[in-house]
Amino acid sequence: MIDFCVxxxxxxxxxxxxxxxxxxxxxxxxxxxxxxxxxxxKRFKQNLSFDHGVQYIxxxxxxxxxxxxxxxxxxxxxxxxxxxxxxxxxKKDVSEKFIGTKGNxxxxxxxxxxxxxxxxxxxxxxxxxxxxxEIKLETGENIQxxxxxxxxxxxxxxKIAGKYLEKKISNLKINMEPNITTMLAFKNQxxxxxxxxxxxxxxxxxxxxxxxKNRFHSSNSLWxxxxxxxxxxxxxxxxxxxxxxxxxxxxxxxNFTGYKKxxxxxxKTHGWRYSYNFVGSPYKxxxxxxxxxxxxxxxxxxxxxxxxxxxxxxxxxKIK
Length: 320
Ligand SMILES: Cc1cc2nc3c(=O)[nH]c(=O)nc-3n(C[C@H](O)[C@H](O)[C@H](O)COP(=O)(O)OP(=O)(O)OC[C@H]3O[C@@H](n4cnc5c(N)ncnc54)[C@H](O)[C@@H]3O)c2cc1C
What we know:
binds flavin-adenine dinucleotide, FAD/NAD(P)-binding domain, 6-stranded mixed beta sheet, alpha/beta, 2 domains, globular, single chain, Polyamine Oxidase, Chain A, domain 2
């Protein structure tokens, strides 16, 4: 029987799995097709890849900066250079923007290289039988583990771990906001000297020019558009049914840029029900030694990749 089953291969799941794997056997389960969670990179076919979640990382703590710089040395990460235009004219952001060399799921990929992982393995329920954990998957499969770590967004972890959580955790008010992201490709569009654009708009707030990350050469132009939170709140439950949602986000972009005449050859929209929460919790992670049940994720601390990494490090210390 494995020592630790980690649910989720996002930044927090892969970090805690990596730290625990130095001493214990670890198995990661994720419902998605690949690693990264909200930092995933969507690849549809060659030269058609988008960072549809995390856009870039700007480390604030010394420790996290050290990790990212080390990953730069290993050529897993790099600085996203070029023109980052800010039409909100907010306080000038001078911090460096780090991205993955091949995709923004680089932290998960790097940390889980040698760890046993099962994708397309959605966890349905968990049961503690006084000796070990029984983990039931939607596929009908059952997995047993001595300890379990959940790293999903708050609502999802609460749904799975429910009755095993202490009230101080299950009663937390964590408000994770939605986001709607559209991935877009134009045929033979002339390349532009822009890496990203931040808009002052009620609907469209961000556009990233994927080609500017220099990961592939293509005559097509790839853009990732992200919505405002307020607009996503109104549309997250209908974006799959109504093409109007996708079309509204795209036409905002076309109006801002004047790309109306360019031929769109690809579009795909993804809705993030739980993107991030701006207000964290009084805790950095959770460990119940008696049950051998742990939780770590960004939402304990804040809305960033760095929060997920810090939370996982905090949990590793508690387990030790
Ligand atoms: C649109 C968007 C833009 C963002 N931009 C930035 C940015 O520019 N910079 C930044 O620092 N942060 C950004 N963030 C926030 C960042 O993505 C998160 O803080 C971080 O990735 C969270 O990592 P995590 O491991 O805690 O959670 P997640 O990445 O959500 O990982 C949880 C994992 O659990 C899996 N899972 C869930 N339920 C189950 C289940 N039942 N069974 C099995 N697996 C399950 C999921 O598939 C997922 O892989 C953005 C987020 C979004 C959505």
